[in-house]
Every structure is written in structure tokens, then in C-alpha cells.
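ok new one. same drill as before - C-alpha cells go in, u give me an amino acid for every spot. 127 of them this time. try not to just spam alanines like last time pls lmao
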């Protein structure tokens, strides 16, 4: 399985879309990796990318006046916590690649479409 970007994931914000595309790339690279040693640096890249992306996205959403910002941030924090847990699991040699890929695939395909697009375009909806 490979995640493929298409216009359904477009938020209308070029920078956010570029960051989301990079997320798809990282997830695809993790899917192709065969060992925990290959996945560990990818997971570190994923965490750094996701953390920085979330900060920018939250700032942008804040500017729209979206009333669900706190819940959106809580969702982001839960994902970051899960990524930290996967990193700890790799360190303890108790790693589940299938669970990591499933989590991130679900996040990429569902969170962007259902949560990010609504939150990022909230201002347009209330006008």
C-alpha cells in the first residue's frame, strides 16, 4: 500500500498542503522500511516535521477564529504522544510497524480531510 496525494486533501493553503504532502512521503518511506533501524530515523523525522507543522497549522487556525481550536490542538497532542510512545517502543525493541503505519495512514487520510480543511477554512464558512 502506498498513500497517494490527491486534490481531496488540499486545504487551499499552499504551505499546509506542501507539509501534508511531505507527511505522505514520510509515511510511504516508513511503509517501505523493513527494520526498526530503518524506521527509527524516519520516525524522528516524522515527529519533528509533525511537531513543527502542528505549530504552524494551529497558528493559522487560531487566525480563523475556529471555535474547535482546543479540541484540534488536543488531537495534535495525542498524536505526538503516540509518536513518542512508538519511539520508546523502538528503544525497548518492542516495535509494531503495522500499528505505526496504520495510525499515520489513518491520520493522513482522515484528519486532513475531516478536521484540517474545516478548521483552516472556517473563516470562509462563516462569511
Amino acid at each position: 500500500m502506498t498513500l497517494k496525494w490527491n486534490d481531496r486533501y488540499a486545504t487551499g493553503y499552499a504551505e499546509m498542503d506542501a507539509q501534508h504532502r511531505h507527511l505522505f512521503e514520510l509515511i510511504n518511506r516508513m511503509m517501505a522500511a523493513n527494520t526498526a533501524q530503518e524506521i527509527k530515523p524516519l520516525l524522528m523525522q516524522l515527529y519533528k516535521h509533525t511537531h513543527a507543522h502542528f505549530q504552524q497549522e494551529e497558528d493559522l487556525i487560531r487566525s480563523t477564529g475556529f471555535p474547535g481550536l482546543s479540541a484540534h490542538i488536543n488531537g495534535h497532542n495525542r498524536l505526538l504522544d503516540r509518536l513518542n510512545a512508538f519511539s520508546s517502543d523502538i528503544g525497548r525493541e518492542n516495535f509494531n510497524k503495522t500499528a505505526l503505519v496504520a495510525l499515520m495512514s489513518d491520520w493522513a487520510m482522515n484528519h486532513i480531510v475531516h478536521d484540517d480543511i474545516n478548521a483552516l477554512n472556517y473563516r470562509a464558512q462563516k462569511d
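The domain at 35-126 is CATH 1.20.120.50 (Four Helix Bundle (Hemerythrin (Met), subunit A)). and btw The chain has a mean pLDDT of 91.
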